[in-house]
Amino acid sequence: MDTPGSAPAEASGLVGWFRRLTGRAAASGAEVVGRLPVRDWVQVNTQPTKVMGFDQPLMWVAISLMMLGLVMVYSASIALPESPKYANYQPTHFFMRHLLSIGLALTAGAVVSQIPMAVWERWAPWLFVVALLLLMLVLVPHVGKGVNGARRWLPLGVMNFQPSELAKLAITLYAADYMVRKMDVKEHFFRAVAPMAVAVGVVGLLLLAEPDMGAFMVIAAIAMAILFLGGVNGRMFFLITAVLVGAFVLMVSLSPWRRERIFAYLDPWEEKNALGKAYQLTHSLIAFGRGEIFGEGLGSSLEKLHYLPEAHTDFLLAVIGEELGFIGVAVVICMFFWMVVRLFHIGRQAIALDRVFAGLVAQGVGVWMGGQAFINMGVNLGVLPTKGLTLPLMSYGGSAILLNCIALAICLRVDIENRQLMRGGRA
């Protein structure tokens, strides 16, 4: 029989103390004591928990989308060198550049996943300032690169960097940090919402000067969603929504070419529209119609043979629909839907652990991925007017793939820290 001063009695007291401190069950503590001396048990359980894994399904879904995108970019771009515009390109030009972009993006994601969320929270305002400066720099003559009448890129040799992609990540981090700082005054419109509205307005003016209305729509959606998820009063949220809708209507009504695009979208098969502003839309719909249920087969698209412009970028889903059919499109939609749901779950989990910044960032990235994918798919299917937005993780575009991977790596970091906290460690 144990004496009062024996090791088991001492362990029992320690188990009770640790149970109150960490919430662990006394039974599990007793099992550990049964296998280890009390001194070793105390030493093991007072050490911070190491990384206990991360959301591997989320990572593999993202990688699967990138790999499918790589195959479809190759299929959509292999015939481009037959066009005079790309006569000096090799058939594998876009495939190799896209493969390089994916390699850089995965490397950057692996590095970013090691950065604690506290660092991102501390540097969020400065990253937003950097994004603003780059958006200004791209408008400088002979610095920003123009393509098809739009000045959106900074040539960096390895890739043409698009500052609007960095702006999406910057606004996600900045809005989350902003809501954490304004949590006490979130019921007051001018103190909580007005400064954020000014920040989004400045970004919007710079993007519309490029012009890049599609990126502005995504950034506005991210900012609004984070304000709403952060607890901004519902009446103020609907007021902001009404103001933004009014602003978009005003922009369309004051821009003749945007107005023509809307009218063409409403009646794409009218002869003038089908040969003009609705040319991409009509050939995208033809591609989906040819694909039917099971598709024409990988590599068998006809629309990519110089009928459908930008088939490897904005209209990649149309090529997927033609070659892989309804089944292929449905798989892509389901993968994006699962990803968004998972990102929101990670965000809710972080907020439940009193990590509001991390939670809002994860949910903001979910809005980013889901919103941009929805707009791109809607454009391809004729549900929305034509906009120059790529399909996240899949379409050709180095800076888009890079920032998509960095954003998802930050979300994986949120999940890693959630798991550390739930196992009694420190984030």
From TrEMBL:
Q: Which residues form the signal peptide?
A: none
**Class of this enzyme:** transferase
- Keywords in alphabetical order, please: Cell cycle, Cell division, Cell inner membrane, Cell membrane, Cell shape, Cell wall biogenesis/degradation, Glycosyltransferase, Membrane, Peptidoglycan synthesis, Transferase, Transmembrane, Transmembrane helix
- Membrane-spanning residues where? 58-79, 99-117, 123-144, 189-207, 213-230, 237-257, 324-344, 356-375, 395-416
The question of whether Hydrolase is a record keyword is answered with: no
GO-annotated biological processes: cell wall organization; FtsZ-dependent cytokinesis; peptidoglycan biosynthetic process; regulation of cell shape
MF-aspect GO terms? lipid-linked peptidoglycan transporter activity; peptidoglycan glycosyltransferase activity
Query: In UniProt terms, what function does this protein have?
Result: Peptidoglycan polymerase that is essential for cell division.
This protein is called: Probable peptidoglycan glycosyltransferase FtsW
Q: Which organism is it from?
A: Aquabacterium lacunae
Quote the gene name from the UniProt entry: ftsW
